[in-house]
Design goal:
Keywords: ATP-binding, DNA-binding, Nucleotide-binding, Transcription, Transcription regulation. The protein is an alpha/beta fold. Helices cover 43% and strands 18% of the residues. The protein has 4 domains: 4-146, GAF domain (Beta-Lactamase, 2-Layer Sandwich), CATH 3.30.450; 164-256, Beta-Lactamase (2-Layer Sandwich), CATH 3.30.450; 267-447, Rossmann fold (3-Layer(aba) Sandwich); 454-583, Helicase, Ruva Protein, domain 3 (Orthogonal Bundle), CATH 1.10.8.60. Bound molecules: adenosine-5'-triphosphate (ATP). Adenosine-5'-triphosphate (ATP) is lined by residues 277-279, 305, 307-313, 377, 419, 459, 462, 495-496, 499.
């Protein structure tokens, strides 16, 4: 990227300074033998390619200095194509070299006898002088290369900073704006020229950093309002320190909505769609169809189903299929947050709403989910007081923030979920009937795993792959016996429980196949669980015998001589015990 033509002005000045001192004309050519500077008759020939000047060519190629003091008997001149017409009486030329690369040639040319005499009489001095001039030019080239590299770095940084999806600005120690990216101006609706303006005046919410307390004050929440435009988020300040001296700060800003969007993007269930929810049983397929229809509507959806059946997964898929998918999906677990905090979590509050309220107020989940979807999980656990507030939001589509003077319009799609029987709760008076009907516009009932046993093999396959990858194991499948056990088991914890068992199995497996020995006993002794649960049912003697055998196996499962102890407890021989295990198809370790 270096060429003499980029510093043409500088080298022309050098050429003219030489003529002024020596009275001999100067010409400078680049590595292409194109004249880039010249004096006397060469002034008009700048830009032309020199031809036949073989001394310059030789000087350039061989990186040597050349003096011709008598062209009539000089070998180079004799070979030169221009030898008949040459008007030169003498010449001195020197290569311009920087870091081993030749960038051109500088030469002194005598067009009169007198000038030639000066050259002849001062050969060494002139050669030395010309060498110094060539060095001067090569230093200019180095500076030009540095300036180019710096400009390139600057351009790269500018492109990088503008490509970041975050507003960024740098300021000097007094707060005067130095550099910023496009997003910074866009996010704060700022006018065109903000260079040199003071950030503490422009964005009053920014606190001037104090050096003593800098670490503690690095991050703050902010609330920015300008002509009806409002923005809330977090900003971080970082120091710019050069050679131990504070030179300024870089401030970045995260809009609360952006933060949620980004969270959603990295969350594993972000991209879940109905097609990639595992399961092909007829029951789950018809639920998927209902969910697809629900995704095209804006009405409230109520998803019911036992714990771990995939209610949140379906809620996300509905959101992702809807035309709100580019906007936030905000999940709130109503049971996990104490009632007194849930209100501010959902609806937010204004600054100064109550003692202890945060400066700048707090954004509620409903505001964050604006234009998107809010997922109210475990809605059955919401207090009656909050149920009333939620009902108002649903009816009026307006939000009344704690401490706010007026209501705010919100556009949020609600998907609620519960594993409780809301109808029963309505009858008992613990859930508002009006809210129940408002929520239950599109009901979706998720089957438990017992009702979709056909899906178990696919789910197991999917989970084995997932955990093998995560845990860096090479487990590829399960033993047929394990699958039989799993198909028999009742799965009270549904898919989440299946996930736990597979994760444990993949962890514990030594080989490629998950075998019975890494499967928890509760799965193997299905009947025992039933015996303990259904003790009021009348059973056949065979059923009773089988149950007692399982009970005994369970009791002595951790003993070394378990079969012997079981047989003894049941009052039968070991051989009879084995026969009965075979008969009742009881799997035991
Ligand atoms: N069809 C499926 N394929 C694969 N994984 C699934 C499927 N359904 C659910 N899961 C996984 O099972 C776990 C439980 O699902 P999810 O949290 O959606 O259930 P839930 O009904 O909302 O549970 P809870 O009522 O306890 O909140 C999650 O890790 C989810 O990714």
């Amino acid at each position: 990227m270096a060429n003499l033509k980029y510093i043409r002005e500088d080298i022309q000045n050098i050429a003219e300074a030489i003529v002024a001192v020596l009275g001999i004309d100067v010409t400078i050519v680049d590595d292409d033998l194109t004249r880039v500077a010249g004096t006397g008759i060469y002034l008009e020939k700048i830009g032309e390619k020199i031809s036949g000047y073989s001394a310059f060519n030789k000087c350039l190629i061989e990186q040597i200095e050349i003096i011709i003091d008598d062209p009539s008997c000089n070998d180079i001149c004799n070979e030169c194509s221009n030898s008949g017409d040459c008007k030169e009486f003498a010449e001195v030329c020197c290569p311009i070299i920087s870091e081993g690369v030749t960038y051109g040639v500088i030469g002194l040319i005598a067009f009169t006898e007198e000038q030639a005499k000066v050259i002849k009489n001062n050969k060494d001095v002139l050669m030395n002088f010309l060498g110094k001039m060539a060095d001067l030019i090569s230093n200019k080239i180095k500076a030009q290369v540095k300036a180019y590299e710096l400009e390139l770095e600057k351009k790269k940084l500018e492109t990088l900073v503008n490509g970041i999806d975050k507003a960024i600005v740098s300021i000097d120690v007094d707060g005067n704006i130095d550099k910023y990216n496009l997003k910074f101006k866009k996010v704060f609706n700022l006018e065109n020229n903000i260079n040199g303006k003071n950030i503490f005046k422009l964005l009053e919410f920014i606190k001037k950093p104090s050096r003593d307390n800098f670490k503690k004050e690095k991050s703050h929440s902010f609330n920015y309002k300008l002509d009806g435009y409002e923005l809330k988020g977090i900003y971080n300040i970082n120091e710019i320190i050069l050679k131990k001296e504070l030179k300024g700060y870089v401030i970045d800003f995260i809009d609360n909505k952006d933060a949620i969007k980004n969270y959603n993007k990295i969350n594993k269930d972000y991209s879940i769609t109905l097609e990639n929810i595992i399961g092909n049983s007829s029951i789950i397929n018809s639920v998927k169809k209902e969910a697809l229809i629900a995704s095209k509507s804006t009405s409230t959806v109520l998803i019911t189903g036992e714990s771990g059946t995939g209610k949140e997964l379906f809620a996300r898929a509905i959101h992702n299929h809807s035309n709100r998918c580019e906007n936030p999906f905000v999940a709130v677990n109503c049971a996990a947050i104490p009632d007194n905090l849930l209100e501010s979590e959902l609806f937010g509050y204004e600054e100064g709403a109550f003692t202890g309220a945060k400066k700048g107020g707090k954004l509620g989940k409903f505001e964050i989910a604006n234009k998107g979807t809010i997922f109210l999980d475990e809605i059955g656990d919401m207090s009656l007081h909050l149920q009333a507030k939620l009902l108002r939001v649903l009816q009026e589509k307006e939000l009344n923030k704690i401490g706010a003077k007026s209501n705010k319009f919100i556009d949020v799609r609600i998907i609620a979920a519960t594993n409780k029987d809301l109808e029963k709760m309505v009858l008992k008076g613990t859930f508002r009937e009006d809210l129940y009907y408002r929520l239950n516009v599109i009901p979706i009932s998720l089957p438990n795993l017992r009702q979709r046993k056909d899906d178990i093999p696919d789910l197991i396959d999917f989970m084995i792959k997932e955990y093998s990858r995560k845990l860096e194991k090479h487990v590829t499948g399960i033993d047929k016996n394990v699958l039989d056990v799993m198909l028999e088991y009742k799965w009270p914890g549904n898919i989440r429980e299946l996930q736990n068992i597979i994760e444990y199995g993949v962890n514990m497996s030594i080989g490629e196949i998950i075998t019975l020995d890494v499967i928890p006993n509760k799965l193997k002794n299905v009947e025992l669980e039933e015996v303990l649960v259904q003790n009021d049912k009348i059973r056949t003697l065979e059923e009773l015998e089988k149950a007692e055998i399982i009970k005994a196996l369970h009791k002595y499962k951790d003993y070394k001589k378990d079969k012997e102890l079981v047989a003894k407890a049941l009052g039968i021989s070991r051989a009879t015990l084995y026969r009965k295990l075979e008969k009742y198809k009881i799997i035991s370790k």
